[in-house]
Amino acid sequence: KDGDVLDWEHLQAVSGGDDEFVAMLLSEYRQSAGQYVERIAAAIASNDASELRSAAHALKGSSRTIGATSLAAASELLERQALQGET
């Protein structure tokens, strides 16, 4: 649905409908996403386009995997800006 943070249908498809696997994926995502956001913030603060690109790329991929499409799109935008040398 529009406005949903997660595409639950995508997450169910990725997990094969296994609720325990969904819980594990979301737990791991929550931890890694927090680390990627910290890296992004630090890269912006230090004007490090290479690190920004790397962290944004990682967040984009993990967000797509679980169906967090809006965050994946925002991460992709950051990644593109970093590729152009913008932080």
Which short descriptors sum up this protein?
87 residues, mainly alpha, 4 helices
Structural class by helix and strand composition: mainly alpha
The end-to-end span amounts to 32 Å
Q: Estimate the helix proportion, in percent.
A: over 70%
Shape: elongated
Task: Compute the CA-based radius of gyration.
Answer: 14 Å
* Beta-strand fraction estimate: under 5%
Q: Biggest sheet, in brief?
A: none
Number of helices: 4
Average pLDDT, rounded to a whole number, is 92
Helix and strand pattern: HHHH
Low-confidence stretches: none
Number of strands: 0
Strand and helix layout:
Elements (H helix, E strand, L loop, with lengths): L7 H8 L3 H27 L3 H18 L2 H15 L4
Task: Explain how this protein is built.
The protein has helices at 8-15, 19-45, 49-66, 69-83. With 87 residues, it is mostly helical. The chain is elongated and about 40 Å long.
Short description:
By secondary structure, the chain is an all-alpha fold.
